[in-house]
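Notes on consecutive records. When two proteins share a document, each keeps its own sequence and its own token line. Never mix them. Below: protein one.
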Amino acid sequence: MAQKFKIKKGDLVQVISGANAERGGDRGKQGKVLRVFPETNRVLVEGINRVTKHTKAGQSDRGTRTGGIEHVEAPIHISNVAVVDPETKKPTRVGYRIETVERDGRQRTVRIRVAKASGKDL
């Protein structure tokens, strides 16, 4: 069974391990999560871990040529990224706050994701 993660699609995350940005790596860079892969424990982050992909030349239905060299994002391990605190703009851990909300005349418990550093909602 796939594991449940605290990082979700659309979160702003920062790379916390790997090569420095000054050395051509991605550590310290921030980006938005495009997709989460729970089966491989990886996330796809916008602008992070860009790789060069060579695609075979071909033709589309309209006759335009396709293929060549593309730069695309590759998945990065989920342990190498951390959610960015909305207040301090620095990486933080994620916690949960349980609240009871009244909906349709009934009491329901809701888990709200919270930044551990500032206590702000994510």
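Protein two starts on the next line and is unrelated to protein one.
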Amino acid sequence: MEKQKEIVIETRIGTQSVSMDKVIEFPRGLLGFENHHNFTLLQLRDASPFLVLQSTEEPKLGFLVADPYSFIDDYPVIINSVDEETLQVKDPSDVAVLVTVTIPHGRPENTALNLTGPILVNRKSRRGVQTPLNDRKIPTQLYLNIESS
């Protein structure tokens, strides 16, 4: 029997066709959403730093995320041994770091990156984890000062 190469998922931004090799497995789920394990990253616009981490199973479950290094240079993330094993890390450069983005309704100027719970994705194994950071030296949020148009 041939393996399925693509799936069609419903999202808040419409119907999307997703290649199975773009599905990311989160064995432990995400914080607060531990029962959801399969997600994909959807590009909102070309050259945009923002993506949607979309559940492949639940259309209403999607998180706006971004690469924090697009906005700040110094954001130290240490991968603990449990996460390293879950991600199946062989080379740390294979791990992408994402953070959730909050845009308050009607107040885009208050858009903020949540720096307390980075999402780590191994690009090669297609496995991910979300890990809380306990370093009090790292700010909890970074406001982006986005102007409304």
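For the record: Residues 32 and 130 are 10 Å apart (CA to CA).
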